[in-house]
């Protein structure tokens, strides 16, 4: 590594953990070091937040920082490796496992993407030990047992491979052998759904030879001496991985021990250095060479080789929210690769399971947007067809073509998914704006307050919106509730209790609450005439619910459902409880008074058109949406709280039944306090 990177590694915690300021660091060590330390410090400080959105924002900042200078990522990986090596000192199990999961999901794949295989392997194994301690201990114990049973097997095979290469006329060779790591064994067990005893290839050998041509000579010697395992040969020399990795991989079966399978990797010392250290090896070669290249030129060269960084920046631009960006980049980072080709011979590496649509977006975003069909090896195949190694793919495009929302169901790359979602969001934006404008107008009208665009403009900063149209769209798609907007602009409506909704027949003429026979206009029994009555917003009681009344001094009676959790707050004052019920005779004549509010919780697919489906289903059952708010949005689903105007419990139950049958709806329940 260059001097600047080493200095940043030593200084990365100084601003956060000491009295030294950023300006002091700049004065003592210069602009380059101070800038890199500042980037890493900000990232580290954000990581102290465990919230998912904070983690996503942190990763977003990391991508931006490393796109400007790849050394930020190298220092960050070194810092994370040190943290993982000392993670056992953290007392709380949940915190250790959270850090381990973050390392496995983000930092290990990043290390692999820049070719730092040694760092990646150690991060994976340290994370595995925290995430699956029992599995790690069991596999490690099994490896120790096998090591004791056949301690000389690795040395025996190593000598055989050395002799084979010598007999083939190769000199200056180096052969090493090792057992595969506990994590790689566990991952293979999970992928193949087999037990440890069913795995036969837990040993791997590496052969270093002096030149590229010698790699193929050594390969021929190995294949000539042992039976080759079909489908295990991979030539990463002629077709390197995206991170520059080059090597020959093959699998063979030994004669002794009987049927023992091994993996053999063959490469040159230079290839090995790149495989172990990735982009960090570029600094080593530059320092040993005589090119006179500056550190900045070297860093730029390392970044230029990493097209996936540019793909992540595209995903960052296309993703609507930080957590969506995090999910999409996880898809992009995890790649068990297949290699396909354009008609002109350009190599495109994709995750296993990729489709022609993923291929099109990997070629260029505009090619993906305009894709209308694909030929694979000369045959016209569906866009959801799964590509295989060696496929030649020709993308058919149309002028003015646009992505189909249905593509999101089968694409596997984060880049494709983010681009499709961006297009769909743009198409729906106007619909959201119109719906949001109508919802806000209704909310302001109900409160009898001004909701003009000029009024809204004054609240944009508090609502974290750039324009009024952005605000309308956020309300229309459920990210912000209409009531939240009203309460932000008119906080007194939130702080001052609204006048209780009066039940017909219960006009404030008396303060007594003696029980009497209800009048013809009353919907409740057990309450004296002239008492103010309000229905609790915590549980939203409906005709048909078992109910109780709570006497509120000077405010009349508050009606709750009998199962309302807030009733426990009044357990110390049982004298405030009032036995009441519904006057079904009055209700049967249609005298329910003002519409009641029923609240439901909906879990639905996070896909275009779902909110419209919900409102249409409500409308079909003669109801209306009073308020709607998305309280949790994930990659595949979202949780929505919906307030509905309903007549009674049966009316709400009918709506719930209709919603459960709606397309894209996974679960509907009445929301409880």
UniProtKB/TrEMBL annotation:
Keywords: Kinase, Transferase. SUPFAM superfamilies: ACT-like, HD-domain/PDEase-like, Nucleotidyltransferase, TGS-like. InterPro entries: ACT-like_dom_sf, ACT_dom, Beta-grasp_dom_sf, HD/PDEase_dom, HD_domain, NT_sf, RelA/Spo_fam, RelA/SpoT_AH_RIS. Residues 1-84 form the HD domain. Signal peptide: none annotated. One of its GO terms (cellular component) is plasma membrane. GO terms for biological process: guanosine tetraphosphate metabolic process; response to starvation. It catalyses: GTP + ATP = guanosine 3'-diphosphate 5'-triphosphate + AMP. One of its GO terms (molecular function) is guanosine-3',5'-bis(diphosphate) 3'-diphosphatase activity. It is an enzyme of class 2 (transferase). Residues 332-397 form the TGS domain. Residues 599-673 form the ACT domain. Its EC number is 2.7.6.5. PANTHER family: BIFUNCTIONAL (P)PPGPP SYNTHASE_HYDROLASE SPOT (PTHR21262:SF36), GUANOSINE-3',5'-BIS DIPHOSPHATE 3'-PYROPHOSPHOHYDROLASE (PTHR21262). Belongs to the relA/spoT family. In eubacteria ppGpp (guanosine 3'-diphosphate 5'-diphosphate) is a mediator of the stringent response that coordinates a variety of cellular activities in response to changes in nutritional abundance. This is GTP pyrophosphokinase rsh. It comes from Tanticharoenia sakaeratensis NBRC 103193.
């Amino acid at each position: 590594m260059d001097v600047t990177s080493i200095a940043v590694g030593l200084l990365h915690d100084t601003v956060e953990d000491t009295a030294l300021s950023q300006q002091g660091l700049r004065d003592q060590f210069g602009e380059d070091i101070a800038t890199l330390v500042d980037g890493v410090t900000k990232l580290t400080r954000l990581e102290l937040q465990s919230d998912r959105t904070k983690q996503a924002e942190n990763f977003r900042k990391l991508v931006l920082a490393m796109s400007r200078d790849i050394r930020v990522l190298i220092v960050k990986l070194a810092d994370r490796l040190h943290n993982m090596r000392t993670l056992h000192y953290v007392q709380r199990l949940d915190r250790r496992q959270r850090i381990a999961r973050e390392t496995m999901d983000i930092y290990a794949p990043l290390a692999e993407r820049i070719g730092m295989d040694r760092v990646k392997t150690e991060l994976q194994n340290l994370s595995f030990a925290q995430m699956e301690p029992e599995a790690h201990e069991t596999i490690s114990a099994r490896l120790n047992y096998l090591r004791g049973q056949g301690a000389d097997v690795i040395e025996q095979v190593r000598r055989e491979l050395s002799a084979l290469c010598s007999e083939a006329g190769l000199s200056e060779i180096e052969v090493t052998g090792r057992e595969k790591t506990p994590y790689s064994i566990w991952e293979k067990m999970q992928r193949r759904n087999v037990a440890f005893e069913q795995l036969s290839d837990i040993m791997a050998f590496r052969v270093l030879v002096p030149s590229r041509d010698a790699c193929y000579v050594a390969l021929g010697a190995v294949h000539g001496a042992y039976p080759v395992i079909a489908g295990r040969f991979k030539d990463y020399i002629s077709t390197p991985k995206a991170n520059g990795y080059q090597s020959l991989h093959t699998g063979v079966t030994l004669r002794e021990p009987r049927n023992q399978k091994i993996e053999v990797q063959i490469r040159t010392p230079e290839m090995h250095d790149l495989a172990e250290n990735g982009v960090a090896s570029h600094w080593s070669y530059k320092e040993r060479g005589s090119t006179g290249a500056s550190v900045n030129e070297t860093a730029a060269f390392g970044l230029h080789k990493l097209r996936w960084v540019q793909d992540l920046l595209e995903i960052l631009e296309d993703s609507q929210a930080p957590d969506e960006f995090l999910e999409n980049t996880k898809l992009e980072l995890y790649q068990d690769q297949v290699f396909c080709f354009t008609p002109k011979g350009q190599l495109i590496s994709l995750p296993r399971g990729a489709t022609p649509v993923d291929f099109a977006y990997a070629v260029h975003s505009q090619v993906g947007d305009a894709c209308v069909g694909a030929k694979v090896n000369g045959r016209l195949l569906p866009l959801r067809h799964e590509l295989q190694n060696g496929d030649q793919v020709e993308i058919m495009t149309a002028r003015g073509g646009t992505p189909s929302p249905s593509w999101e169901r089968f694409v596997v790359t984060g880049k494709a998914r983010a681009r499709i979602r961006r297009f769909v969001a743009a198409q729906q934006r106007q619909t959201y704006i119109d719906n949001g404008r109508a919802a806000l107008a209704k909310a302001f009208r109900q409160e009898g307050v001004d909701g003009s665009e000029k009024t809204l403009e004054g609240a944009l900063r508090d609502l974290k919106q750039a324009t009024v149209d952005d605000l309308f769209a956020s309300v229309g798609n459920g990210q912000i509730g209409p009531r939240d907007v009203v309460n932000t602009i008119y906080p007194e409506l939130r702080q001052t209790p609204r006048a209780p909704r009066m039940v017909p027949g219960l006009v404030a003429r008396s303060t007594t609450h003696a029980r009497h026979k209800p009048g013809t206009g009353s919907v409740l029994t057990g309450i004296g005439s002239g008492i103010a009555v309000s229905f609790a917003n915590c549980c939203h009681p409906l005709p048909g619910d078992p109910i109780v009344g709570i006497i509120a001094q000077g405010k009349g009676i508050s009606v709750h459902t009998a199962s309302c959790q807030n009733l426990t707050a009044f357990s110390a004052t049982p004298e405030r409880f009032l036995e009441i019920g519904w006057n079904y005779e009055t209700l049967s004549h249609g005298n329910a008074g003002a519409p009641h509010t029923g609240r439901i919780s909906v879990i639905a697919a996070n896909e275009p058109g779902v909110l419209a489906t919900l409102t249409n289903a409500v409308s079909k059952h003669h109801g209306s949406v009073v308020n709607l708010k998305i309280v949790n949005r994930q990659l595949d689903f979202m949780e929505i709280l919906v307030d509905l105007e309903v007549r009674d419990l049966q009316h709400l139950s009918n709506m719930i039944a209709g919603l459960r049958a709606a397309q894209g709806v996974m679960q509907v329940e009445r929301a409880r306090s």
